[in-house]
Structures are given as structure tokens and as C-alpha cells.
Amino acid sequence: MIYTPFNALSQTPRPWGEKCGVFAVWGAADPARLTFAGLLALQHRGQESAGIAVTDGRSLMRHVDMGLVSHIFDHDCIRTLDGHANSRAGFAGRLGGGIGHNRYSTTGSSRVENAQPFIGRSRAGEIALAHNGNLVNALELRRRLEDAGHTFHSSSDTEAILQLIAAHAGPGSPDPVADALRELRGAFSLVMLHNDRIEVARDPWGWRPLVIGETEDGALIAASETIALDIIGARFVREVEPGEIVTLSDAGVESRRFAPPAEPRAHCVFEHVYFASPASKVFGQTVQTVRERLGERLAKESHVPADCVLPMPDSGRSAATGYARASGVPYREGIIPNRYVGRTFIKPSTEERVQAVRLKLNIVEDVVRGNRVVVVDDSVVRGTTTRAKMDQLRAAGAKEIHLRISCPPIRHPCFFGVDFAEPTQLIAAGREVEQIRKLLGVDTLHYLSLEGMLDVVQTASLPREHYCTACYSGKYPIDVARAAAGAVSGKC
Amino acid sequence: MIYTPFNALSQTPRPWGEKCGVFAVWGAADPARLTFAGLLALQHRGQESAGIAVTDGRSLMRHVDMGLVSHIFDHDCIRTLDGHANSRAGFAGRLGGGIGHNRYSTTGSSRVENAQPFIGRSRAGEIALAHNGNLVNALELRRRLEDAGHTFHSSSDTEAILQLIAAHAGPGSPDPVADALRELRGAFSLVMLHNDRIEVARDPWGWRPLVIGETEDGALIAASETIALDIIGARFVREVEPGEIVTLSDAGVESRRFAPPAEPRAHCVFEHVYFASPASKVFGQTVQTVRERLGERLAKESHVPADCVLPMPDSGRSAATGYARASGVPYREGIIPNRYVGRTFIKPSTEERVQAVRLKLNIVEDVVRGNRVVVVDDSVVRGTTTRAKMDQLRAAGAKEIHLRISCPPIRHPCFFGVDFAEPTQLIAAGREVEQIRKLLGVDTLHYLSLEGMLDVVQTASLPREHYCTACYSGKYPIDVARAAAGAVSGKC
Amino acid sequence: MIYTPFNALSQTPRPWGEKCGVFAVWGAADPARLTFAGLLALQHRGQESAGIAVTDGRSLMRHVDMGLVSHIFDHDCIRTLDGHANSRAGFAGRLGGGIGHNRYSTTGSSRVENAQPFIGRSRAGEIALAHNGNLVNALELRRRLEDAGHTFHSSSDTEAILQLIAAHAGPGSPDPVADALRELRGAFSLVMLHNDRIEVARDPWGWRPLVIGETEDGALIAASETIALDIIGARFVREVEPGEIVTLSDAGVESRRFAPPAEPRAHCVFEHVYFASPASKVFGQTVQTVRERLGERLAKESHVPADCVLPMPDSGRSAATGYARASGVPYREGIIPNRYVGRTFIKPSTEERVQAVRLKLNIVEDVVRGNRVVVVDDSVVRGTTTRAKMDQLRAAGAKEIHLRISCPPIRHPCFFGVDFAEPTQLIAAGREVEQIRKLLGVDTLHYLSLEGMLDVVQTASLPREHYCTACYSGKYPIDVARAAAGAVSGKC
Amino acid sequence: MIYTPFNALSQTPRPWGEKCGVFAVWGAADPARLTFAGLLALQHRGQESAGIAVTDGRSLMRHVDMGLVSHIFDHDCIRTLDGHANSRAGFAGRLGGGIGHNRYSTTGSSRVENAQPFIGRSRAGEIALAHNGNLVNALELRRRLEDAGHTFHSSSDTEAILQLIAAHAGPGSPDPVADALRELRGAFSLVMLHNDRIEVARDPWGWRPLVIGETEDGALIAASETIALDIIGARFVREVEPGEIVTLSDAGVESRRFAPPAEPRAHCVFEHVYFASPASKVFGQTVQTVRERLGERLAKESHVPADCVLPMPDSGRSAATGYARASGVPYREGIIPNRYVGRTFIKPSTEERVQAVRLKLNIVEDVVRGNRVVVVDDSVVRGTTTRAKMDQLRAAGAKEIHLRISCPPIRHPCFFGVDFAEPTQLIAAGREVEQIRKLLGVDTLHYLSLEGMLDVVQTASLPREHYCTACYSGKYPIDVARAAAGAVSGKC
């Protein structure tokens, strides 16, 4: 809990909202418990901190902490939150509401100040806000608000959004939330808890997913992915539209627009490739089947004679089954993960004798020795652990190693909510595939083509131009010059 | 870390600053380490949370947490903070600065949001603020700021002060800090860390103590009590004057006024009676000797033939030695505290068999049996544990129990930084001494008279009218009507 | 750390040694560090407690605790143990030795008294002992030793073995270890650390695996599975023979017999089916490839027209690939595990709304809906979670569910180191397959035949009669009448 | 939880029983809860580990851990233990029994193996044993038992006693407990829990106290000090006699002798001087009043003109009041302890700037400056912290410092249960008082004379020759040659 320097962070708005999960429920007897379950389902979107806020109709209460959802919330904690929601000072017997958030961060420092949901009280009332995404104009907004006399207590985009809403509120202001959202540039899927309703909103580009659902009991749900609906037995109703604000309240579901959808949209293709759960439906398609088809396409683009297809566990499994099916090469399990290693201390200090990668993965020598193996993975970011794994396969006797990646090379930073390494550390930045192949020490290397990827992910209702592929192509849907300049060391 | 309802708290500004300790140092190679030592010395002023903020000349860093100073800060944590202070991005080799805070609260809920120092960034720059005291117009200030578009993220007075400074800052504003402090009504001893200086300030009434010191190495110190100077080997320079802002910087000590001293002042007499460390010098006098003289005066006012004087450990020790000396009755130790009990769970569930008070105190029967004992304590607030102790003495065979209290009956709430129980729970509220005597089950009960107390605490340079005695007399130095109205259940 | 009743346990020797992993190293500069890595690799064999003991040539030191290896041992702890081993009071510059243990237990109570390695000092010298297996005559041995004046401080078999060795030691006793081991009936793979050597031993039936390896630096290793050799880069030398004691010392590897190998052996077939790591080589064969062939055989025995083969993650993956290959039905991932759920509290209290199984597994509806699915798993013990998973598949729209299990029905308790549920709770105990099928709610259910399983696991050098199949067949290799009688509720 | 070398400890039996507290109760509905309260009261006798064992009439259960009683036992833990005691498998409605233990140790390493009560099962039945004291022939006993085939799993004397009882048990052995106790040489106050009774015993010399009490409900109690009776409202019945075994059971209190009382006894005078609680009655006298009289005698032996008497908190308080009374010099509080410092990290690393002693104690300068002060403390062991405190007084302006110690110089190791520093580190070992005075930097130094001390502690029924004064006089009541030889570095 040592905080990183405060000022440096406010000068360089780090994308704290990146790779996060949000959840909201209105009209349930146990909103905290449902939110807890929803956050468990969304844990893959962020493991650094988590939080839940609830309302009793008159005041908000929250609990946030660093760590995994299952460690932060125990029975007493959930009961206290649900108890607050059910004290119903203002509800007169109606059911309660709550929101939750998982946050991912790659920075070493823990910042409980930045944990969400964030609560603010202003002339716009009391609002708890949780945010998945990243703004490219956050620093400008903060500076403008500071010049107007506002004070900031954290470095998060989320606080800036709350203060912007307050700035827009006041006499004669019919919709300060919409006014504020219109000023945001970048990716945001938001859930906002008021004392009498929940508002959820999605940026006009639709970068991050956000869906609406409903339980059998009539509780209204919003969540980053459909898997959070499944876990609580809620049915999928629809996606929140780009540029739309949806209100969940005792009056049911209401919709308004703060902006028209961007033309074209900018749905993050990396949600399909890597980030979302395979069991979720994202941008209208099931992630698992998309990944299988990416694998099939990959096989067609890069066939090579081989003895077996090995998935990199667990990230390459979906694509590997598709690859195997399309290529006719047998699918086998040859790389066995050690699920118990966790974050053990041994790695740095004993690299020579006990290679860290050996602790995480074991090779089944019988499957590998003397064989030509195709290894399928979903992406390569820095390449350091990939190289170690390839060496391990070679040491176990692989005759040929053919590495197949189910997306194109990642060469550009993301400013919209995925925190890759710094551009200088991306193995594919400024390198040709052949150079990367040599660095990774494999016999052949093939990345799925951008065309191939887009052929797979497009549908009749969602043409390929509606996907953001900036990390592969460098073509950003909106101007990111200031964001890029502000980012120390080109950090996105 | 379950947070109490957010809204309820902002409607009812609880005196979060009450019974706190503050510390500041400028110009030291190890500001975090010195602040840590200073906070250890001031731990008696607050045990709920603690925090330290430091600057490297360009940005602030802080570490705060719930709990005791010795648990919150370990070697690595202090080293990181000192490392930041010494990275000296902006210092060019000069020495660093830091501030710290201990907070006391009687509420059961822990609110890490309210932990201090509080950091805010605005057009007034980056400021870390720590606060001892309580404002009576905090709610008005917050409402006014909210109406102007400000957003609050906590329920603390401290955040309101930071935002007020930001509101006063801006083009053409020569001294926003002084402008802001002039608007505060109530008790405050503040330390503010900027990136290039520390400012410390004290309200015009001088409710809470605040002193300036200097180490042999030339580091400049500010602290709630002189004991924090002693612990780091610093010499006492002077008190901060009521209405004064003192700046500690590389330029040395500078002073300005934001307001004239109030006439009369309102120094809290309870600092002498109970709150400050006996080893500190407060309002110009050593607390220990004041307490001895309170005991002497008490003996003169209430002499009774007795076999021994027993101090209530540890609170009554100083007064009891004075009482014994003046009365000629032998001083003996007959009530032995158990230092290891801590907060053990056994109390609520086994009241019948194992009385909780027995776990905390043991009576030396040989000292008590058949004897007329005078028990001296510094104050009685609720009276519940006092009654249990008196019963214990009786059960151990005390022939007569004469309870002597070294201050008058506490009958009124404090709005200036001491969090007594609710007025309805003060045993002396609306009761005559004889009624209290019966409730406590003692043979005689005597409280020191208000006159007697003031005779003892006044000095040539500090006449009696400069003390606030509101909790005894009900005469408040400033209008507290709105504060009292805002306080749910009359809670101060 | 509440201990279960002491006496009850010593009357009913629970199989504390069951499902454990052991590791030993002699002649390394960092024996604790290597043992730590070995225990990480063997963590799947036991997650309840772990421990490491080392020698400096003159005295033993150990560290044991409840929990996972990666939580119990930190850098300081390993350094302290390695420091002890390298203080070399008695080594005069030679290299150190150590042993380690992982323990599994299905009982709710944690018993740090029973954590291993166990250390005893007697006329046999100082010995640290770690044990994988279970004795059927432990209670008789304890009673006999108690009658002779011995005192027991735990309920573990391991303490009984240590005391038995001491009882056999004494003047004129050339090999008390061999004498003691000859008296043990049941399964045991042991590692024993003396101050000048390590002895490892395996019961005459060879129930549990135990292998010898060697690092490049010449350190000698013993471990439950070859995966522990791989993780530290050691090469496999050979298995420890049934009835053999192998000594690892500065003199190298020495061998002696305490008993001839049993005819036939009784290698636990369940190691291949379920227990060992797929990356290990056990009883001469790689587990992963054995499981693939079990799946192939299963496909041949139970073909059914279907749209896809779904592995139950992670237990059914190996067999499912074999099944898919042999059947020609496409292999797909349709059941997605949630790796973050862990042991969360929500399960018991909200079964109605949030089914626990939903928290652990998510179904990919696109893969399942309208399809005939073959689900492959390695075993069914109680059947409760299997039923819930089948319901989940049905709810996701599976048209037909064909459950395939890659071993025969488990109908009998194990007395040799695998702690199944109580016989009454085994779903297959006393039930025909058709009855089980109805209980599980699937369209067809097929268990691999005993014949089919033995066809797969047998080799030229290891005929089928050398496998223990008691849990399937009820034919125990040795008399277990007394063990069964002593076991409360038939607990093995 | 790193264990120190096992072997080294068994060769050199460290006095693990030293400075401990024991408690026992029979015939209570909540034996664990009463034992918990008793251990809280006895916490001053040992803070390293604690444990409670209970019986349900058929089996024992225990809970032990490192740390303070209030941290080790929570509500659930006590309830589980009481629940076990009340399950009454064998009681048929009778009330339960339990014992408890606090252990003190000065060694840095924590050894949960040695935590008491210790449980053993043998032909003598199941016994839980807790022990206060130290044996001088433990190593001989262990070696003899090892030669007879016994195995030891810890280095504690307690395990040796349990095994000795087992060795004496067997056919034709009417009283193995008495037989075993007769073989022990040294100090022991024992409580033993059987499934149908409790036995408590005290060595023939009566080194350590041990008393019997009874609650109003008729529960029978044994405890190290009377303060443990007071805390649960039990009345004092009598002391356990030296050489006596007292049985507490459903049949009430029964007594037998295992040996005649030693002539003379060897009651530890240091219990009165330092170790016991001032509120306890020990060896027939109240500790508090004994200490007051030691202070009076000290005043008579060493009068010096002075301005005030300052107690060293908290150890010197009792003697200081006696000193002040007898000398007529005013008693004042001038040294103020900081109760919150605890074990903070800052000490070693910043000795130069922030002296550790300043963190622990603050001097009231007003009381000290320009004055001749008498400082009274109960003992000086190493003298290092005393020197620092004297320097602090001098720095605060003391004109003269007269140090008065209420016992003679400690010059010899204790082998009977008090773990002083090593003899070489005792400041008084081999030094004259004048040399010590110079080392401590005081104007005068006076230790109470041995004669004076014995005059105070002797009574009509307990003449002075019945006290052990070995640490002062070097005259050991029994031969300690072998113990002294076995002790590495002369460690007792």
C-alpha cells in the first residue's frame, strides 16, 4: 500500500480503467450477493482490486480493497452491504440496488485510493461510479476542472468523470450526466449508482462490451460480459448501444442517448482474441466459437506437416481445437500447467538452477520427443515467456516447433483500455515476422493475417470496419496524439 | 473496512478531526523516519488510523492505514517514503519534508477514506493536509462548495478545507490558504505539506496545542505536543500563535496572520486534565505538574480521614500523588492493571461468571480490606466502568470508598475536538453530585470545583478566561447552535 | 488449528499418509531450495500441509505448516533452512541434504501435529521421516508399542514407524530400519533423513510410485513422481524397487532389501487414471499417454453418434483427446472453468439462487445447444457435482448427453493411500450402471471396463496382475479385515 | 516458525518450562472459558505461547499456538473446546475439565513443537501435561529413556516427564505418576489432565507457587497464582504442598505424597521481588505488600537527601511507594512510559538519531530538572536499558541520581525456572557495586542487602532458610553441576 507519487500520476493519466469488469443490479433483495457473484464471473477482467457499492434509497455504502473478489468479500461483509441495502430508509419496502467493479493493473504499486466504485457527493447528488475503459482526454478535463477550482484526490479517470458531472449540474441543467459523457473521448463502459436508480452508459464507439439482463425475479442487471448473467441465472436482454444511457430503476428499463453511435464503431477485436471469457457472447458472437474459427483460419493460412497440435494452456485451447480440426493434425495435451505455483518467490533468485518457467509448465516428453509439433497460442506480447516455453519444448526433444498465433503481430499501444507493455517492449514492434521467429527460436512462425482475423470476426450485422484493430494496424479510430504525448515512455 | 453510509455522514459532520495528533518536519534527510517517531510519541492522541505524507520537491507520496503507528509502518514502508523524499527531483540536494497524523474515533466503523493526511491537487497546487480539531461550520462550507459544483469523496472536514483553499485560489488571489482559514469556525491545528514548504496553522481561539521545534541538525518541526519534540531530540522553540500561519521551508521559519487572536482565547482545559501526555508542556505548563496540583487542590477541597490513597491506573496517577502529598494520607498501589488483556472477546458473552472488569484490573486485597480508601481519577465520563471498579473494591473488603475526581462534572458536549459520549450518556448530565454518588455506589464523591481547576491552570500570562470550559460549564466560546442541531442525537 | 479428539484418532488410525508426495535430496548446496521446487511440482498430491527438514551433518531442522507450499515457504524460510544445511557442523565442506512432504487430507480439521516430516530422536539416532501411503496394521503396532511403555504424541502412522525403528534399535541390532519396515503391512513410500545419509524405501507391493534421479551437479534425488525431477532439471535414474531400501549419501547410491518384492505386486492403477501428474512417468509409462489410450479404448467400447466431445476440465482432458481421436467426433471446449473462485463462502448460503456449480464452471451455449455431446471425465466418486454439471449442460440446451468415464465404477474403499469418500457415499457402491445413469440424469453412461483398463495399463514388463484394482474389483491384495473393522463408518 | 536445530536442543536441555503459568479446572460447564480467563490473568508469567487442553471424559482435545492468549483464542475456538468438553461421551451429564499453560522464552526462535499442554498416549492412558519450572536432570532422564528404546519428538522437559510416567506404568505398577515424579530433580509445578481427573503436583522444594481454589459453583481450580482465582471469582483454598500430588475429580479434592517436603524448602524469592503479580498472594504473603516493605527496608539501608522519589514504571512502583513512605521524600511520577511503542522496527537502525529508550520512556523535565532524584527499580539484570534511562534523566537536568534496587545484585544463573541472561551478561556478575555504579552513570547506587531482603520476606511460618536465593548468593539448594556443564555457554 505504498502509494506511487501523486503528482506524477496526475500529470500522466495512467489508464487505470483498463481491462476492468463492471456489474450492476437494481431491484433485488440481495444486491451485494448478486454483485459478488457477478464479480466472481468477471474476475478474469481484473485481479488487482475489487469493490461493491449499494444504496438503501437514501445513502450509499461501499466496500473496496486490493486483491481477489473471493478474498475481499466474506459472508459478514456481504451481509452488511445487503443489510444496508435492505434497511430501506427511503425504499418503503422496495428492493435494493448495487454496483461492482474488478480492476486490473500491471503496475507494481497498489493504490487503494483508485479502487472503484468511486463515490462522490455534489449538487448532482450522491453517485457511485465504476468504469471499464480509458479516456484519452482525461488530463485535459482534469486541468480544466482544476482551473475552475476543483480539487482531485486520486489519479483516476473515474474521479474526473464524477467531478465533470458535478460541474455540469446546477440550476437549469436538465441532464448533467449526458452533458458530461459527451465531453469524454475514449473508451468507457460505465455503471453509476444513484440512490433511486442505476445509470449505465457506453461510449459512442462501443470499445468495451456492456450488456443488459434480467433475472427470473425481475431484477435488472448490467454487466461487462454475458458470463456474469449466466452465473446468477439471468437471461440476456440486449447490449447497451454505443452512445446510449440506460436507466435501471423501479420504473424498469429506460433509454436515452447522450450521443449518436460513432460511424464506424470501434469494437475492440482483442476482446474476442484474448480478453473476454470464452463462455461469453461479445459483440453478438460467442467468444469460444470465434476463437475456434480463428484457429481454423490460422490452419488454412499456415498449414505445415506435423505430428500433433499442442495448445498453450489455457490461452491457446480454443484456437488449437479449431486448428486441429481444420488441419487434420491430431490435437494432444503436451504442456501441463502447474496450477499451484502462484506467485512464488523462487523465481528471481534461482534462475540458473530452477528455471521459473519449469515451475509453471511441464512438458509431456512422450508427446513431444521426436515429433513435429504445432503450438497454438492466442497472442504474443513481450515474448519473454514464450521463448522460455519453446526452449523447454526443444529440451524435451521436439524435432520441429511450429508456432501459430491466432491474431496478427501486436505492434502499437492501446489507448482504450488494454494495458500492453510499453511499445519498446512489444516483441513485434518494428520487427518482421522472420526476426521474431529467430528471437523465439522456432522452426516456423505464423501470425493470423489481419484480413483473416477480420473475415472471422465480421458478421452480416457487424461489418469489419466496426472493429478497432489499432494495436495491429496502428490506425486509431480517434486522435490519440495528446494521449500518446502525455504518456511517459509511450506508456498507454 | 465496511464503510458506514456515505450520505448520512456528510449530512452530519462527525468530528473526524477530534482527538488527533499532527506532526511536520522540513529539512531532514529522513523526514518519514522522524515523522514515524513523532507519531509514536503522539499515539495517545489517536489510535484508529495513521498516515505519513512526504514530498520530493515535485510530487507528494503518502501511506495511510487503519491501526496503530507501530503496525502500519514497517522498515520498508518508511524507507520507501524517505527514498521518495530523497529522490529530490526538485530539491537539487536539499533536504526533504513530511507530515503525519494520528486519528482517534469512537465510532465502530473504520473509514480508510477519512484517514489523513489527505492529498488534493487543484489550482492551489498539490497539498497534503492533516488536521486536529473540529469545525462547527463544516456542513455549511460543504453545502456551499457543492452548490458551486464541487464534489466530495469523504465525510471529513479535512477534504472541505482542501476544497475551500482551491475555491479561493485562482488568478489574482495572493493568499488562498489564509482566505480559506478565515472562513473556518471551530478548532483546528493544521499541518499542510506543499512541494516546497510546510504551512502550519492554529485557529484564533487556540483550542488545540501546536508547537514549533528544531533539531540539532537544523530540521524544523511542528507537532501537537512537546513530547514529539523530545522523542527526536528536538528543542522547543515556541507555540504557534492563535490565528497564525507558520511556514517551514528552506528559508527557515516565517510567520503571517490569517486572523487576530480571539479575545479571549479558548484553550481546552481538558488537555491538561486528561488528554495530553503528562510529559508534555501544553499552553505553557507541564501537564504532569498541573495534574499534581489539581490533586493537591482536590485534597484541600475534599479532605476525608482515610487509610490510603489509591490511584486509578494509569489515568489517576499524577493527581493521586498530589492528593496524597497535600492530604498526608499514604499513597499506595492497590489497583493493578492487566496489560495483556487488550480487546478480548470474552467480555460480552460471559458477563455473569467472569466480569469483564476483573480481566482489566485486579485489586490487592491486603491493601484494601478493612480500610478507608480514597480513589483518585482524572474524570468520569459514562460512569459504567467506574461503577464496576467500585464494586470490585467493595468486594475486596474496602470499608469506605471515597472517590475523588480531579475535574468538575462533565455535563455538556464538546464541539471542538473531544469526542465524549452522547450527552444523554454522560453520567453527570442533568444530575447532582449526590445522585451520581449513589449511582457509583461510593461513600463520598467529590469533583474538583470549576474555580479550583481554574485556579490551578491559570498563570500570570494565561488568565483563567482564556480557557474553554464548555464541557463543564455549558458556556461555549462561539455559537454552536447549528453544529448542535446538525448532530444526530446531539452527538458532538 | 482446532485439533480433533486425540484419543478417537489413535483408536481409529485415519490414513493420514494418503495421497501424499515425498521428496529427498542429498549432496546439494541448496537442499531446501531444491526440495521446495520438488514439493511445488508434487503439490497435486496433497494440499493440506507441507514441510521440509534438512541436516547440517550433526542436527536436523524442520519447518512445517498447514497450507500450500508456495504460502508456507518464503525466501527467508528457505534461506534459513539452507543456511542450517550449509553450516556444516559435521560436514567439513561436504554438501547438504533434505527431505520434504506434501499431505492431503479430506478431513475438515487441520492437525499440525500430524504435519510431516516427523522428527524423532532415539537410540536409532535422529531421524526425520516423511511418508506416502497407508498402513493397515498401524493400530496393532501402536498398541504393541504402548504396551511396551512407548508414548505417542500424534495419531500418524509416521510416528509409529519412527518408534518401531527405535524399538528395533539397540545393542546387537545391525539394521533396525529394515527390521521395522518388515513389520509394516500396507502401502508406504518413505524418505528418511539421517544426519549422514538419506534412506528411501518402498513397500514390497509397490503401491505408490517412488523414483531416483540425479542432477547435473551430482546431487542425488528421490521423489514420488518424475515431474519433481523435471522441475529441477534432474535426470531419471530408476524406480525404487518394491521391498528395497536405497541409501543416498556421500558414498553415492547404495541398495539393500528389507523384503522380497510381493508376488504379484500391487501398483495402484488409480495413479494412472487420476492421481499422478499427466507429465509424470509412473510404473514405467507416461501418464498422459496412458490416459489418451484409456480414452481411445473407452471410445471403442462405447461409441455413440454425437456432434462433439467435451472434456470435463481439467480432469477429463487427456482421455477426451483419445476418445475424440478414436471416435472421429470433433473435440471442442464447451465447459469453461472459473480459475478464481477458490473456496468462496457463497456456496452454502445461496444454493437456490446462485448454484455453486455455476461459480466453478460455465457452459459455452453455442457449443452445446441442440447438440449431442459426449462428456469425458476420468472418474466419478460421489456423483454430486457431476449431476449438477449435467443439469447445467441440459439447461444450456444439450440435446443428448453421453457421459463417458475412463475407468470402471469405484465401489470399494481403498486402504492403501487414496482417501475416497465413505463407501456409503460412493455413487457406484451397490448400484448398477443403469441406476447411476438415472441418478446423473444423462442419456447414456459408460464406464471403461476393468478388462479394457487393464489392457491399456499393462505392458510387457508389467503384466496386468501386478496392478491393485481393489477399488473397482473389491479384491484386496492383502487382508484388510482388521483395518476395515477399525475404520469408523467403514472409512478407509 | 523456523525451528532451531533439533539435536542441539536435545543435547542441551534448555529450560523450556521457565517462567511459565499453569491453570487447571475440574467440574465446570465451561472449562475452556475459565481456563482462558485464568491464562489471561497469568499472562505476565509467559507471553511466547499458550495452550488449552480439555477432556470430554473419553478423549482429549487441545489448541496451542505461539503468541498472546488474547490473540490465540477467539470465541469459536473456546466454544469448540467447551463443546468437546460438554459432548460428554463418557461423562453422562457430569461437568468437564481442562488445563492451560502460558510459556515464556527468551530465545528468538519459536517452537510450536514445544508449546504446552503436551499430550501423550501410552499404557498410562491419555495425559495432557503442562509444566512450570525446570529440571536439572532432564538430559539424564532422556538419555536413559532413549537407551530403553523411547523416541523423543521435542526438546521439552515435559515430553520427558510424560515418557517417564509411561515407562513406570505397566502391570503391577500402582502409582506410575508418583514413581516418575520422584525421579525428577529441579523445579516443577505441574498440572496433568486425564480423562477422568486432574492431578497437580509440586516439587519437594516448592520452588514455584501452585494454589488450589474453588468457585461458587463448586468447580475445583489449580493455578500458579491466586490472581487467576480472583479473575474467575474463585476463593483461595490452600497451596499445594511441596512433594504433594492433589487430585481434582468428581470425587472432590484428594491428596497423596510422592515425596516428603525438602528440608529446607527452596521457595524462589524472585517471585516476590519481580516475577509474580503484585495482586497475588505467594508463599503466604501478598506480593504488593512484600514489595512495599522491600522498598521501606531499602530506604532504611540507603537513605540519601533528595527532592523526590521516582518509580521506574511499572516494575519499581510498589517498592517506590514503600521507599517514599519510609524516607519521607516525596513520591512523584517523572518517568512516563509510552504504552503504544510495542516492538517497533525503528530501534536498531536509527540508534544515533532516535534513541530507542526515548521511544519507550519520556522524562517529565519539570519534575527532574535541578533536582536530586531517587529512582527505585526492582532489579537490574543486564543493565543496558538502565544505563540509557539514567542518561535520559541526566539529559533532562537531574542534579543527582540515586538509584535504589529492591533486591541484591544478581550474580548467578538460575536453574529452576527463571531465564536470566547468560552469566557473562549479568551486569553484577563478578563486579562490585561501585563498578556497577560507574557503568550505570549514577551518583549513588544501593542494592537491598540479602539480609534485608530475607528479613522482609520471612514470616513466622516460613523462616528465611526456606527461600532459594541462589541467583544472589550462588548457594544452590541442590547439586547443579551437571546442569551447568550441559548448558552451552553456561546458559541456564
Helix tally of chain A equals 19
CATH class categorisation of the largest domain in chain A: Alpha Beta
CATH homology-level superfamily of the largest domain in chain A: Aminohydrolase, N-terminal nucleophile (Ntn) domain
Give the CATH architecture of the largest domain in chain A: 4-Layer Sandwich
Strand content of chain A: 15-25%
Short overview:
By secondary structure, chain A is of the alpha+beta class. Chain A is built from 19 helices and 23 strands.
Give an overview of the whole structure:
Four copies of one chain form a homotetramer. Chain A has about 500 residues and is an alpha+beta fold. Chain A folds into two domains: about 1-265, Aminohydrolase, N-terminal nucleophile (Ntn) domain (Glutamine Phosphoribosylpyrophosphate, subunit 1, domain 1); about 285-465, Rossmann fold. Chain A is built from 19 helices and 23 strands. A seven-stranded antiparallel beta sheet of chain A has the order 3-2-4-1-10-9-11. In chain A, strands 5-6-7-8-12-13 form a six-stranded antiparallel beta sheet. In chain A, a hairpin with a 2-residue loop joins strand 5 (about 120) and strand 6. In chain A, helix 2 crosses helix 4 (about 75-85), helix 6 (about 155-170) crosses helix 7 and helix 10 (about 285-300) packs antiparallel against helix 17 (about 450-455). Mean pLDDT of chain A is about 90; it is low at about 1-15, about 105-110, about 345-355 and about 485-490. Chains in contact: A-B, A-C, B-D, C-D. Chains B and D meet through helix 2, helix 3, helix 8, helix 10 and helix 11 of B and helix 2, helix 8, helix 10, helix 11 and helix 14 of D.
